[in-house]
Amino acid sequence: MAEQQTVTFIITRQDSPESAPYEETFHVPYRKNMNVISGLMEIRQNPVNANGDKTAPVYWDMNCLEEVCGACSMVINGTARQSCAALVDKLEQPIRLEPMSTFPVVRDLIVDRERMFDALKQVKAWIPIDGTHDLGPGPRMPEKKRQWAYELSKCMTCGVCLEACPNVNDKSNFIGPAALSQARLFNAHPTGEMNASERLNGLMEEGGIDGCGNSQNCVQVCPKGIPLTTSIAAMNRATNIQAFKNFFGSDQAH
């Protein structure tokens, strides 16, 4: 009987936010069309490392398993991406799994992406609604504008663009490409544009758009193909105009 084929994972582990990282190797049974998540599930069911030692199951985040939620982002063979969409057959072995280095590690492959959500707060990435009564269907968005705005709305806050950006690190408070693009999305909304100046002023705060070095790594790695550099250029122009308005007192945000 032929020996069962296996997949080798070398996983960077960390028992707590304060502890030192270490590597642990696992061999899991191969199945056709399996993804990285499938391998991690096998380890969870049978947490025995390559030395035959019983160990703690590997911790990782996941949710939708359809590359929509962004929760399962990790560094796979040196590239930040979603582990649900990473097929074992298309990866070089051994498969190395690491947590994204831009964010603090919680445990193993789980990271704290709080800085992304703080960035969304800074640029007010939402549409404020005044009251709870029925406001009707609201203004229509022209179809051409809706099409490119829809591309921006695909952002799943996965953190891959921040991982690739050299300006996002523990020595910087740069909010990153995702928040810049979301400001453009909500400013394009017929209702959201009423608060456009507030978002632009948020972009001009510390850690805002001035922190972008235009390396363009973000647009190359975005799993949703969002035109991040186009958004950054648009927000550069918009914040310059807003700065003039602020200076001459014609459009101060309150």
Task: Tell me about this structure.
The chain has 254 residues and is of the alpha+beta class. Helix content is 32%, strand content 13%. Strands 2-1-5-3-4 form a five-stranded mixed β-sheet. The protein is elongated, with a radius of gyration of 22 Å.
Q: Tell me the Rg in angstroms.
A: 22 Å
Named CATH topology of the largest domain: Fumarate Reductase Iron-sulfur Protein, Chain B, domain 2
Strand content: 5-15%
Helix content: 25-40%
Broad shape:
elongated
Protein name: succinate dehydrogenase
GO molecular function: 2 iron, 2 sulfur cluster binding; 3 iron, 4 sulfur cluster binding; 4 iron, 4 sulfur cluster binding; electron transfer activity; metal ion binding; succinate dehydrogenase (quinone) activity
Cofactor: [4Fe-4S] cluster; [2Fe-2S] cluster; [3Fe-4S] cluster
Keywords: 2Fe-2S, 3Fe-4S, 4Fe-4S, Iron, Iron-sulfur, Metal-binding, Oxidoreductase, Tricarboxylic acid cycle
Highlighted features:
254 residues, Ubiquitin-like (UB roll), Fumarate Reductase Iron-sulfur Protein, Chain B, domain 2, five-stranded mixed beta sheet, two-stranded antiparallel sheet, 7 strands
Short note summarizing the structure:
This is succinate dehydrogenase. With 254 residues, the chain is α+β, with helices and mostly antiparallel strands.
Which helices and strands, and how do they pair?
Layout: E1 6-13, E2 22-29, H1 36-45, E3 73-76, E4 79-82, E5 95-98, E6 105-107, E7 110-111, H2 114-122, H3 143-153, H4 160-164, H5 177-188, H6 196-203, H7 217-221, H8 228-248
Protein name: succinate dehydrogenase
GO molecular function: 2 iron, 2 sulfur cluster binding; 3 iron, 4 sulfur cluster binding; 4 iron, 4 sulfur cluster binding; electron transfer activity; metal ion binding; succinate dehydrogenase (quinone) activity
Pfam family, one: Fer4_8
